[in-house]
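Today's session is about reading a structure prediction critically. Students often jump straight to the picture, but the first step is always the sequence itself: look for stretches that repeat, for charged clusters, for runs of hydrophobic residues. Only then move on to the predicted structure, which in these notes is written as discrete structure tokens rather than atom positions. Here is the chain we will use throughout the hour.
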Amino acid sequence: MKRVIRNRAWIILVAVGVLFFVWGLHMIFIIPTYDGSNWDWMNPTNEMVEYFRYLFRILGVWASATGILIASTASTGFRQGSRWAWYALAYTPVQIALFGVMFFWLFMFTIPLFALTIIALWLSYKEFFPKSEILRAEGIGG
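Below is the predicted structure for this chain, in token form.
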């Protein structure tokens, strides 16, 4: 049963990638359609509102591209057991944590994504790094 769960960790990462992609599309197409009243507490000028819209579009492109990268890496290399894919996806929780810290109002939304990626990487660790190979690399056990 544990092996089946470990072999399905790629599905969790694909889901995180799809969530990132959809979130990016939301920032590209939905948030910029908000009128300026969403930022009334700052007394924004029209230029400021346009700047906010631009920033959300750029962040949306970044999030969508990250989602595509995560989902494609998880569904190809990670699923096949390539170590490069595990290393590439090991950066995903770091990136999510940085995003949550930089944009503190999103911190509560990034915690589940962070937890899911850590769980998926932890579950798959033994598949990518079997104990016998680690011992052999260290010169222990022949």
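Discussion point for the tutorial: Helices lie at 2-7, 9-30, 46-80, 83-90, 92-102, 107-128, 131-137.
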